[in-house]
Design goal:
Helix content: 40-55%
CATH class of the largest domain: Alpha Beta
GO molecular function: flavin adenine dinucleotide binding; FMN binding; tRNA binding; tRNA dihydrouridine synthase activity
CATH topology of the largest domain: TIM Barrel
Catalytic activity: a 5,6-dihydrouridine in tRNA + NADP(+) = a uridine in tRNA + NADPH + H(+); a 5,6-dihydrouridine in tRNA + NAD(+) = a uridine in tRNA + NADH + H(+)
CATH superfamily of the largest domain: Aldolase class I
Strand order of the largest sheet: 3-4-5-6-7-8-9-10
Bound molecules: flavin mononucleotide
Oligomer: single chain
Family: Belongs to the Dus family. DusB subfamily. Belongs to the dus family.
CATH architecture of the largest domain: Alpha-Beta Barrel
Number of domains: 2
Pfam families: Dus
Shape: globular
Strand content: 15-25%
Order of helices and strands: EEEHEHEHEHHEHEHEHEHHHHH
Distance between the termini: 39 Å
Keywords: Flavoprotein, FMN, NADP, Nucleotide-binding, Oxidoreductase, RNA-binding, tRNA processing, tRNA-binding
Largest sheet: 8 strands, parallel, barrel
C-alpha cells in the first residue's frame, strides 16, 4: 500500500512530505515533522534575489544545521538567471534538492510574476526550468498548481515540459492560482499528470486524515503526498497516516502528556532558533494551532498571546496542561 518515493538518487524513508509553508516550515518545524514520521520536509522558499539574503529572515531560512538528508530547499522568483544563481548558492550551502516554487498564490510573490503566476507564461517556465537544471548537479523538483484558472489548467503541459527539461519530481496542489485556498482541491488533473509523465508525482491539497491520504494516493496513482496545513499544530499526523497506510488501522491520538512534551520542546526550539523576542512571537501562532481543539473559547490563547518572555510561555503551557489533566480526572 505504501508507495516507494524517489527523488533523483534519494529514496525517501516514506512518501509523506511536509509541504513548504512560508512562515511555518522553519527548521524547528521541519525537524519536528521529520521526527513525527515525515519522509521529507521542504524548507520555506528563499527569494531568488540574493540582495535579500542578508536579512535576518533569509538567513534563518538558509540555516539547515542538523537536518536529516535529503535537504530540499525551495526557491522562488521569476528571472531564470537569478533562479539559477539562487539554486547554485543554496546547493553550495547544503541543499541536496532544489525545489522551484510555481505554487504560491501570495501577492508578494505573484506580483513579480513568480510563484503560481508563472504558469501563465509557459515559455518563461521552460527557460526557468532549463536554467535551474543546468545550474546545479543536484536534483531539481517543481511545485505547481493545476493551472492559472479554471479555464487554463495547464499543469499537464508544464509537467511534460518539466520532464523534458530534466526536472526529477513534481508536486501538484489540486487548485488553480485563482482558487487561492478556497473550494476543494481536485485530483483529476493530478491523476492526468501522473499518467502522462514518467517522473515521480506528489499530490497535494486538503489531505487532512489517514482516509483522505489513502483515497488521494489511490485515485491519482501518485508516488507520495505533500501535507501542509493539516500538520500545523498536529505534526503527529505523519505517523498517524503512515500507520494507517501500513496497517489499515487507526493509531490512537497522542495522549495529553505527549502533546505537552511535543509542544514544550517545539517552543524551546523556536526560542533557541530565533532568539527570545522573535521566538516568543512565532511561538504564539503555533500554540494557537496546537490548542485549537482544546481551548475552544480561546481564553487561554488570549492570555498566552499577551506573554512576552520565553520562561513565562513555558510556565503557562505547563499550567495549562496541568489544569487539563485535572479536568480529565474530575470527568472520569
Ligand atoms: C501559510 C502558508 C504558507 C505557504 N507557503 C508556501 C511556499 O512558500 N511555497 C509553496 O510552494 N507553497 C506554499 N504554500 C502552499 C502549501 O505548500 C500547499 O501547497 C497548500 O497549503 C495546500 O496543501 P494543504 O491543503 O495540505 O495545506 C503555503 C501555504 C500556507 C498555508
Amino acid at each position: 500500500m505504501l508507495p516507494t518515493a524517489k527523488i533523483g538518487p534519494y529514496t525517501l524513508p516514506n512518501p509523506l512530505i511536509v509541504a513548504p509553508m512560508a512562515g511555518v516550515t522553519d527548521r524547528p518545524f521541519r525537524l519536528l515533522c521529520r521526527r513525527m514520521g515525515a519522509g521529507l520536509a521542504v524548507s520555506e522558499m528563499v527569494i531568488a534575489d540574493s540582495k535579500m539574503w542578508h536579512t535576518r529572515k533569509s538567513r534563518s531560512r538558509l540555516n539547515h544545521q542538523g537536518e536529516p538528508e535529503p535537504r530540499s530547499v525551495q526557491i522562488a522568483g521569476g528571472d531564470p538567471q537569478m533562479l539559477a544563481q539562487a539554486a547554485r548558492m543554496n546547493a553550495a550551502s547544503g541543499a541536496q534538492i532544489i525545489d522551484i516554487n510555481m505554487g504560491c498564490p501570495a501577492k508578494k510573490v505573484c506580483n513579480k510574476a513568480a510563484g503560481s503566476a508563472l504558469m501563465k507564461d509557459e515559455a518563461l517556465v521552460l527557460q526557468i526550468l532549463k536554467a535551474v537544471v543546468a545550474a546545479v548537479d543536484i536534483p531539481v523538483t517543481l511545485k505547481m498548481r493545476t493551472g492559472w484558472d479554471e479555464g487554463h489548467r495547464n499543469a499537464p503541459i508544464i509537467a511534460r515540459m518539466a520532464e523534458e527539461a530534466g526536472i526529477q519530481a513534481l508536486a501538484i496542489h489540486g487548485r488553480t492560482r485563482t482558487d487561492k485556498y478556497t473550494g476543494n482541491a481536485e485530483y483529476d488533473t493530478i491523476a492526468r499528470v501522473k499518467s502522462d509523465v514518467g517522473i515521480p508525482v506528489f499530490a497535494n491539497g486538503d489531505i487532512t486524515s489517514p482516509e483522505k491520504a489513502r483515497d488521494v494516493l489511490q485515485y491519482t496513482g501518485a508516488d507520495g503526498l505533500l501535507i501542509g496545513r493539516a500538520a500545523q499544530g498536529q505534526p503527529w499526523i505523519f505517523r498517524e497516516i503512515l500507520h494507517f497506510l501500513e496497517t489499515g488501522e487507526h493509531m490512537k491520538p497522542p495522549p495529553l502528556n505527549e502533546v505537552e512534551t511535543i509542544l514544550s520542546e517545539h517552543l524551546l526550539a523556536l526560542h533557541d532558533f530565533y532568539g527570545e523576542t522573535m521566538g516568543v512571537r512565532i511561538a504564539r501562532k503555533h500554540v494557537g494551532w496546537y490548542l485549537q481543539s482544546h481551548d475552544q473559547d480561546k481564553r487561554f490563547r488570549q492570555s498566552f498571546n499577551a506573554i512576552d518572555n520565553a520562561l513565562e510561555q513555558h510556565d503557562s503551557i505547563q499550567q495549562y496542561f496541568a489544569s487539563l489533566r485535572n479536568e480529565e480526572v474530575f470527568a472520569a
